[in-house]
Design brief:
The complex is a heterodimer of chains A (271) and B (166).
Chain A (H helix, E strand, L loop, with lengths): L1 H18 L4 E5 L3 E2 L5 E9 L8 E2 L6 E3 L11 E3 L4 E7 L3 E8 L3 E8 L6 E4 L3 H7 L4 E19 L13 E5 L11 E8 L2 E2 L4 E6 L11 E4 L5 E5 L4 E12 L8 E12 L3
Parallel strand pairs in A: 2-11, 11-19
Antiparallel strand pairs in A: 1-3, 3-4, 3-7, 5-8, 6-7, 8-11, 9-10, 9-11, 12-13, 13-14, 13-17, 15-16, 15-18, 18-19
Chain B lengths: L1 H19 L5 E8 L10 E8 L4 E8 L10 H6 L5 H7 L7 E8 L11 E10 L5 E10 L4 E5 L8 E6 L1
Antiparallel strand pairs in B: 1-4, 1-8, 2-3, 2-5, 5-6, 7-8
The chains are: A mainly beta (271), B alpha+beta (166).
């Protein structure tokens, strides 16, 4: 049984390594705005391992924009280039907007064949579907239900906080409001997994401009028993937060494991 | 009879106010905005007072353009302006060019109540379009004595002075 658990863990690690082949992020032109007449923002959406240099476009049409009143906001024009997708958004209401991609599960089933070390993958096949699709003699079958949330927050005038969690997979709950993160001030985020505070979430934060320095100076943190990370950033700037967590699940007809990734873009303002 | 009591109460409260509050306490800010070379836009300036917990108790100065630029006065906007539209509305004042300014204030909070004795921090945030930013942070004490605080110079603020006159 112990060996089995270890094997599952190893599978999860492998999977995550594959799934996170590229970081993804949403980068708005502004995180904080002031205007009583509404404002425009432009937002870059890209899959790129360089923070924050763009690399590949990402389907920005799948981005959900939620306004301060909880209703979804329709973007203006959008453009898909070869290095990034761009979306134009008009903010009319005062308050905080959430921009989010993902949130829907994707399923990955892996298996092996007797006498062969190679791991095979079935993309988009859940646990309940796999029996019909696995070849005869498949062993060590394992299905991962995976959630990825790529998100950012933009605040026009007074910040608000009315964002619902889905309670599926890994989610970030701002304790410190994302528009209130400042150089030299302590900030906190909370991680929940399937709706419950999750200890042991591995978090990494990278400040922009990695291309122009030798040491990325990534800040690495692990969530405490209450799912909380606390941090004080010495430098103002734009940051990409990456977090991931996976665990075995029981009583889920669709998966043996649930995994989640988060990519949050935020700015730490000058004190 | 009722009227008499009310009048007495009013008189007493007026007397009490002037005796206990040190309403005579004055702040004097000698603000010196340095001349700059090259393209020059008047700076946006906010000066305000925070208590010992970092909460703003009084905005003294707000020299600004349209609402779109308020966000550029970063700390003042984050800590004060965006949370209280009434302060923004009450303070509207146009930007001013480089020069020496003598500004006088009563030692009151935003609600026009006198500031109690204690430790405070004067903050002056100066931001210039196509220019730099400076964030002056001067702790001071209100204890019934007069004080004078020379303010640290930086790129956007020349020799300036904060005076408490009792």
């Amino acid at each position: 049984m112990k060996i089995n658990k270890f094997a599952l863990g190893a599978v999860a690690l492998l999977f995550i390594a594959q799934a996170s082949a590229h970081n993804r992020w949403i980068l708005p032109s502004h995180f904080n705005l002031s205007n009583d007449k509404g404002e425009w923002v432009m937002v870059d959406v890209t899959a790129s391992n360089e923070t924050f240099n763009v690399d590949k476009p990402m389907g920005a049409d799948r981005m959900k924009i939620t306004g301060p009143n909880g209703e979804s906001v329709r973007p203006g024009s959008s453009y898909r280039g070869h290095r990034k997708s761009v979306v134009d958004i008009h903010l009319e209401q005062s308050g905080t907007y959430q921009l989010k991609m993902g949130g829907d599960p994707s399923y990955w089933t892996s298996y092996q064949l007797k006498g062969d070390d190679k791991k095979h993958w079935l993309r988009g096949v859940s646990k309940s579907q796999r029996q019909a699709q696995l070849p005869q003699g498949a062993i060590n079958e394992n299905t991962m239900e995976s959630y990825a949330n790529v998100l950012t927050y933009i605040t026009l005038n007074t910040p608000t906080n009315s964002f619902k969690t889905t309670n599926k997979g890994l989610e970030l709950v701002p304790v410190t409001h994302p528009s209130d993160i400042a150089q030299g001030e302590q900030a906190q985020f909370k991680f929940i997994f399937n709706g419950q505070p999750q200890a042991g979430v591995e978090v990494e934060m990278v400040r922009e401009g990695v291309r122009y320095r030798n040491d990325p100076n990534a800040l690495k943190l692990i969530s405490d028993d209450n799912g909380i990370i606390s941090f004080t950033l010495a430098h103002a700037g734009r940051y990409l937060l990456m977090a991931e967590h996976q665990s075995a699940v029981k009583n889920n007809p669709e998966a043996d494991e649930v995994g989640g990734q988060i990519f949050l873009t935020f700015e730490a303002v000058l004190d | 009879m009722n009227k008499l009591i009310m009048l007495l109460a009013l008189l007493l409260s007026l007397l009490g106010f002037s005796a206990a509050s040190g309403a005579a306490t004055q702040f004097k800010l000698e603000l010196n905005l340095p001349a700059q070379s090259g393209e020059y836009h008047n700076p946006y300036v906010a000066a305000w007072i925070e208590d010992d917990k970092g909460q703003s108790v009084r905005t003294l100065v707000l020299w600004r353009d349209g609402a779109k630029w308020l966000k550029d006065i970063r700390r003042w906007w984050r800590k004060v302006g965006r949370k209280d539209q009434s302060i923004v509305d009450a303070m509207t004042s146009a930007t001013r060019p480089a020069g020496h300014y003598q500004l006088n204030f009563k030692a009151l909070d935003d609600q026009k109540q006198s500031l109690s004795a204690g430790n405070y921090v004067l903050r002056i945030e100066i931001v210039r379009e196509n220019g730099g930013r400076s964030m002056t942070k001067q702790p001071f004490i209100l204890n019934g004595d007069s004080h004078q605080y020379p303010l640290a110079k930086s790129y956007e603020i020349a020799q300036s002075l904060f005076i408490i006159k009792e």
